[in-house]
């Protein structure tokens, strides 16, 4: 470690911001590419470059400034990444992995090819093709690309729902009788060393298809937890790329585990690791990027992470209500992402609660949800 | 909380840097004033202003940009702070408290006035006055102002040592038969709410009079720990200022506790709180600055903090050896301060180890000290 390693982050959102909080523990020089004047990560890096992460030139020129590149979001220009990789820039996750994951169709086919359990699916290109899959209904239709945070998903239960369907390349997936949704974060460094976090349990906000809160560890049998960790490692190994991956899974009513999707990066379902695990997902990513030994994924104490989401009917410069009252409760950690504007359903921050028991965590979360409001 | 609170930090060293890592969890806009192009805190704030923290104009103009001011170091222009406070800028610690603490002579007289136990002392203005205090020898002579990190201290055992003494306003303090050195961090917010951390034990590096390592919690009787916490609270209450304070104390061979000195800010002796306590000293400072409820000072797990100090005989662009090997050990947290140049005895970073037992922590610390070298 002579000259500080130059680390570039494509995207300047909250994941980049939290990564930079960890980056400040290391001998690194940090670069962020994002459009807009003040994205969340822009004030915590050495070099903020305003530019479009989907533009070939912007990404290529940015990549040439650094030793290693990573992402805050999948929606980045892939051609530039392939070129940069050819020219010797390290990119974690690798562009070929990103290419598969960015396209939910390729991602699903990849699972099938690698015998990763996943809900049955078909690929379609246009809405009218849905007619020939009626026997496969009810389904979740998901856009092959461009979806995020629950956007780009439509539930189609019967023929009459086809009018609401996307008329675009998409997958249709058989609906799972979901018992629980869990997520397992895995990481691998360049030398092939790998590690896996204990599963967390995600509870969704049905208004926005966003994680409402998650509980760590997931309240599931140990054998199921081990199985989930095994599957997550299988997924990462199939992708064959250094990096950090969040593998989201369904547990169905028969205790089958099915992979829903994988994020090739830190993830909302790992935020609790900052206070709840020995090594946070962000510190883990820093270790991966620097080729350092991986950290300890063990849980320090049970935790619950609650997303702070913009309230319905409010859009504009953000105001936070009730933070102070929430902080009067013990062992409540506030994370505000520094976004200037709120809108309904926008992720504006999160709260992590640590404690001894799940019941205690749930109780406190309920109180906090009543206290904190993200409005304008 | 509407517009982000504007927080200014005078000084851009590692304490400011770690404060900014915590600041990124809140809805704040951060400002740093420091000389030099790239001090440790400069890359983690919204606004870095290059300027002299000892210059009236620089500090005054900087202070006018913010809602609340704090410090990374005591050596700042006080006149500007008094003026700013008059004009309604919140300053934690208050300038009148800082004025007392900055001058070790005033600080000692303050302890005496407020019946805070502290080693006996005399004030002198010139070296030649030492002759009339020979019966008080052996003493530690400390410069009244300008000393830091063990600089500005001279041990005078006998008359012949007077030739090495400082010829400047200083205190001479009777040498304590030190059994242990401990530190207790206390915090108070504007509403008068106060809290206290468990004592930590400091072991010094005799080459540089710097903390070599510290162990949390201090290995002392509970009654002594409670007494130390009580004294630290007394000190803070006597100072009558919101803020965070590190009260360094000696425990003598008769188990008397004597206050050595107080830092009116976060402190080296609180670095372990990032991983080893529910609320870190930096998060606590953020709460104080924002007028938020204070955090939980409890220990999450025993910890040991080891300073990473520039090796003797190396000066110039820094290189770190052995970090990777150290990180192969479990539950070792690296904190590099991002300073470009090393020199003998310069604080370049620290390592925190968490674990179950003091013996285990000491063992690991010994290994790490052999592994990591800060050279050029």
Topology:
Two copies of one chain form a homodimer.
Chain A: E1 5-10, H1 14-23, E2 28-34, E3 47-50, H2 56-63, E4 68-71, H3 78-86, E5 90-91, H4 95-102, H5 104-113, E6 121-124, E7 139-143, E8 153-156, E9 170-174, E10 178-188, E11 194-196, E12 200-205, E13 210-216, H6 222-239, E14 243-252, E15 257-263, H7 273-276, H8 281-290, E16 303-309, E17 316-317, E18 319-321, H9 323-327, E19 332-336, E20 341-342, E21 347-354, H10 358-371, E22 373-375
Parallel strand pairs in A: 1-2, 1-4, 2-3, 4-5
Antiparallel strand pairs in A: 6-9, 7-8, 7-9, 10-11, 10-12, 10-14, 12-13, 13-16, 14-15, 16-21, 17-20, 18-22, 19-21
Textual characterization of the structure:
Two copies of one chain form a homodimer. Chain A has ten helices and 22 strands. Chain A folds into three domains: 5-91, Rossmann fold; 120-174, Dna Ligase, domain 1; 178-375, ATP-grasp fold, B domain (D-amino Acid Aminotransferase, Chain A, domain 1, 2-Layer Sandwich), CATH 3.30.470. Chain A is of the alpha+beta class. The first copy, chain A, is 26% helix and 31% strand. Chain A has helices at 14-23, 56-63, 78-86, 95-102, 104-113, 222-239, 273-276, 281-290, 323-327, 358-371, and strands spanning 5-10, 28-34, 47-50, 68-71, 90-91, 121-124, 139-143, 153-156, 170-174, 178-188, 194-196, 200-205, 210-216, 243-252, 257-263, 303-309, 316-317, 319-321, 332-336, 341-342, 347-354, 373-375. Chain A binds chain B through residues 1-2, 4, 17-18, 20-21, 24-27, 30, 43-46, 278, 283, 287, 292-293, 295-296, 300-301, 317-320, 323-324, 327-328, 330-331, 333-336, 338, 354, and chain B through 1-2, 4, 17-18, 20-21, 24-27, 30, 43-46, 278, 283, 287, 292-293, 295-296, 300-301, 317-320, 323-324, 327-328, 330-331, 333-336, 338, 354.
């Amino acid at each position: 470690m002579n000259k500080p390693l130059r680390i570039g982050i494509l995207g300047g959102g909250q994941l980049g911001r939290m990564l930079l909080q960890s980056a400040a523990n290391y001998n690194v020089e940090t670069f962020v590419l994002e459009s807009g004047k003040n994205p969340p990560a822009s004030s915590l890096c050495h070099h903020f470059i305003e530019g479009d992460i989907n533009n070939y030139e912007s990404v290529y020129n940015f990549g040439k400034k650094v030793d290693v590149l990573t992402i805050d979001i999948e929606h980045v220009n892939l051609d530039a990444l392939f070129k940069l990789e050819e020219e010797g820039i390290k990119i974690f996750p690798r562009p070929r992995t990103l290419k598969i994951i960015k396209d939910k169709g390729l991602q699903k086919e990849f699972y099938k090819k690698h015998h990763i359990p996943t809900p049955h699916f078909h690929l379609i290109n246009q809405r009218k093709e849905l007619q020939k899959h009626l026997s496969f209904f009810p389904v979740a239709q998901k856009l092959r690309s461009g979806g995020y945070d629950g956007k780009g998903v439509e539930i189609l239960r019967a023929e009459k729902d086809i009018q609401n369907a996307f008329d675009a390349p998409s997958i249709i997936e058989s609906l799972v009788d979901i018992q629980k949704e869990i997520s397992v974060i895995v990481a691998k460094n360049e030398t092939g060393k790998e590690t896996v976090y204990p599963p967390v349990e995600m509870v969704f906000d049905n208004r926005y298809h966003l994680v409402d809160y998650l509980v760590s560890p997931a309240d599931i049998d140990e054998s199921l937890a081990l199985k989930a960790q095994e599957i997550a490692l299988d997924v990462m190994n199939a992708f064959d790329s250094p990096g950090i991956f969040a593998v989201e899974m369904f547990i169905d009513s028969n205790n089958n585990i099915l992979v829903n999707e994988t994020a090739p990066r830190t993830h909302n379902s790992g935020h609790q690791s900052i206070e709840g695990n020995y090594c946070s997902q962000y510190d883990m990513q820093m270790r991966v990027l620097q080729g350092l030994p991986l950290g300890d994924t063990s849980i320090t104490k049970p935790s619950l992470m609650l997303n702070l989401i913009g309230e319905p009917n409010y859009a504009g410069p953000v105001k936070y209500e009730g933070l102070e009252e929430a902080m009067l409760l013990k062992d409540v950690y506030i994370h505000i992402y520094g976004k200037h504007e709120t809108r309904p359903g926008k992720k504006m921050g999160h709260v992590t609660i640590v404690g001894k028991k799940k019941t205690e965590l749930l109780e406190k979360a309920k109180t906090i949800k009543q206290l904190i409001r993200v409005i304008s």
